[in-house]
Amino acid sequence: MPKVRIVTDSAQDLEPRFLESKGISVVPLTVFFGEEAYLDGYELAGKEFYDKLRTSPHHPHTSQPSPEAFRSVFDRLSADGSHVIAILLSAVLSGTYQSAMLAKDMLPDRAITVINSKLASCGYGALAILAAEMAEKGETPERITAVVEKMASECVTVFSVDTLDYLAKNGRIGKAQHFLGGLLNMKPLLSLDKEGYVTAIERVRGKGKVLPRVLEIIAERVPSRKASIVTISHADAPEDALKMKEGVLSLLKVGRVFESQIGAIIGTHVGPGCLAVQVFPE
């Protein structure tokens, strides 16, 4: 049976070298501040990015990996006959998936599966880890792909942002457009729909009401109160993330928890203060 190799991109927000230690290859996206370019997760990450976001005269913009960047990784990993599975950022939020598909077409004689997770941030990073663990146990590429796609389709995503300005400025407002121009001190609660678009849930008045309402929404959307995986991500808001984790763990019976700081790619679009929870129901 051919070996299965797992690939993901840096917008999944788990630390690239942590994933590499698990045998997962990470293809980085790029963030630009004016003429300065940084590889996400490798050259700019975490608090350093948010400090730069707050102080730079340039608003950042991001770029997906080139098809050649994916082709190089796919070629290296599949040269020995291995089957490559790439688990990537939502195709409607980035051209990353399309770049990977073009790279796959450059290697028509290789076994390559490219999965549009329709997710963002830590959720599909957790799925990459799960896929690598399944591969290590000898599961087939077909079985790994089926499990990842099913879990991704069932993921419940809820996130809050301090302002919609970043999403609007970067063209990622999706189906939450009507939330723009809201009332003072209103905090938007958002989600990702089945196609991976940002979509509105509701607005709550004041930061203090965000966590209780997020927990209520999770309870409504995960009626079993059981989750195989939960991910907690934050944009330079570690104390809020800790409270969110404690709240979710008191609400749900959880198998595994993954935590991450939102990196430069997603952080460019959501801004500081974003708090995200992704739940994979059991």
Walk me through what this model shows:
The structure is a single chain. The protein is of the alpha/beta class and 282 residues long. It has 2 domains: 4-29 and 64-152, Rossmann fold (3-Layer(aba) Sandwich); 155-281, Hypothetical Protein Tm841, Chain: A,domain 3 (2-Layer Sandwich), CATH 3.30.1180.10. The chain contains 10 helices and 13 strands. The chain has a 6-stranded mixed beta sheet, with helices on both faces. Strands 2-1-6-7 form a 4-stranded parallel beta sheet, sandwiched between helices. Strands 4-3-5 form a 3-stranded antiparallel beta sheet, covered by helices on one side. The two termini are 29 Å apart.
CATH class of the largest domain: Alpha Beta
Q: Output the strand order for the largest sheet.
A: 10-9-8-13-11-12
List segments where confidence is low: pLDDT < 50 over at least 5 consecutive residues.
none
Number of domains: 2
Helicity, in percent? 25-40%
Order of helices and strands: EHEEEHEHEHEHHEHEEHEHEHE
Computed Rg: 18 Å
Choose one word for the global shape: globular
Q: Give me the count of strands.
A: 13
CATH-defined architecture of the largest domain = 2-Layer Sandwich
